[in-house]
């Protein structure tokens, strides 16, 4: 079931980003059941997941509709998130990160390295779904390590803007080579960030995290422009 839900989320997300589904358009379960050849349950759960990502919004009565956004809004939101997460990285480095949280960060680096190694053996086809899980855990742990509830709340707020979250816009299998390149760069940034935190280099950690977000913004622009995103 989890794999089926992930597949449905991927396809609906692709259709929204490519413009096949227009802002304000209401999405109905039954047409998608027939179109995608799945039951109503994965459709319903996919809607919930896409609402969390900020791509859909729940209607006051029932159902969901496509949320409106534009490229500038996404770009600005990612830049703001980068500044906030940069601050989180600096605070975490300056105050020090407890051993349990550091172990989680180390585990994420290990998992990311293994995913890239496996992808290299498979023609750069990477398990993007597993990367999303690992990446989410890495960013969440880092933000919590900063120890600032207002900062954590601000990052959570900005991440609700469509495609602004650190874990958004990974659409598995749509553009494998681009996905591999993006994730390889992200993993390298994660390694550099953990090294800066270990050395208690707050300013360096902040710079790495802000650059990490900037690369994410540029990567999303490239992915949005990819012909694979607009195949209908």
Can you tell me the residue ranges where pLDDT is under 50 for at least 5 consecutive residues?
A: none
- How many beta-strand segments? 3
Q: Just give the CATH class of the largest domain.
A: Mainly Alpha
CATH topology name of the largest domain = Four Helix Bundle (Hemerythrin (Met), subunit A)
Major β-sheet profile: 3 strands, antiparallel
How much is the radius of gyration in Å? 18 Å
Oligomer: single chain
> Could you say which overall geometry the principal axes of the C-alpha atoms support?
globular
The helix/strand series, from N terminus to C terminus, equals HEHHEEHHHHHH
Number of helices: 9
- Which second-level CATH architecture of the largest domain applies? Up-down Bundle
Helicity level, as a percent range? 55-70%
**Terminal-residue CA separation:** 25 Å
How many domain units?
2
What does this structure look like?
This protein folds into 2 domains: about 1-65, Winged helix-like DNA-binding domain superfamily/Winged helix DNA-binding domain (Arc Repressor Mutant, subunit A), CATH 1.10.10.10; about 70-230, GntR ligand-binding domain-like (Four Helix Bundle (Hemerythrin (Met), subunit A), Up-down Bundle), CATH 1.20.120.530. Helix content is about 70%, strand content about 5%. The chain is built from 9 helices and 3 strands; from the N terminus they run H-E-H-H-E-E-H-H-H-H-H-H. It is globular. It is mainly alpha-helical and about 230 residues long. Helix 4 (about 70-95) runs parallel beside helix 8. The protein has helices spanning about 1-20, 30-35, 40-50, 70-95, 100-120, 130-145, 150-160, 175-200, 200-225, and strands spanning about 25, 55-60, 65. A hairpin with a 5-residue loop joins strand 2 and strand 3 (about 65). The model has no long low-confidence stretch (mean pLDDT about 85).
């Amino acid at each position: 079931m989890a794999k089926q839900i992930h597949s449905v989320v991927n396809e609906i997300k692709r259709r929204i980003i490519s413009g096949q589904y227009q802002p304000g358009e209401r999405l109905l379960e039954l047409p998608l059941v027939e179109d995608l050849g799945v039951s109503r349950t994965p459709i319903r759960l996919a809607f919930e997941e896409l609402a969390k990502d900020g791509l859909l919004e729940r209607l006051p009565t029932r159902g969901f509709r496509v949320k409106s956004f534009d490229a500038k809004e996404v770009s600005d939101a990612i830049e703001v998130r980068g500044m906030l997460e940069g601050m989180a990285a600096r605070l975490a480095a300056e105050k020090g990160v407890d051993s349990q949280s550091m172990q989680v960060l180390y585990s994420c680096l290990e998992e990311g390295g293994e995913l890239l190694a496996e992808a290299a053996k498979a023609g750069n086809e990477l398990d993007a779904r597993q990367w999303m899980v690992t990446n989410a855990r890495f960013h969440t742990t880092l933000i919590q390590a900063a120890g600032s509830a207002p900062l954590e709340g601000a990052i959570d707020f900005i991440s609700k803007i469509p495609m602004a979250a650190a874990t958004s816009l990974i659409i598995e299998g749509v553009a494998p080579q681009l996905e591999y390149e993006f994730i390889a760069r992200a993993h390298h940034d994660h390694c550099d960030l953990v090294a800066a935190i270990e050395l208690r280099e707050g300013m360096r950690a902040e710079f790495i995290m802000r650059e990490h977000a900037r690369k994410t913004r540029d990567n999303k622009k490239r992915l949005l422009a990819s012909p694979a995103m607009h195949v209908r």
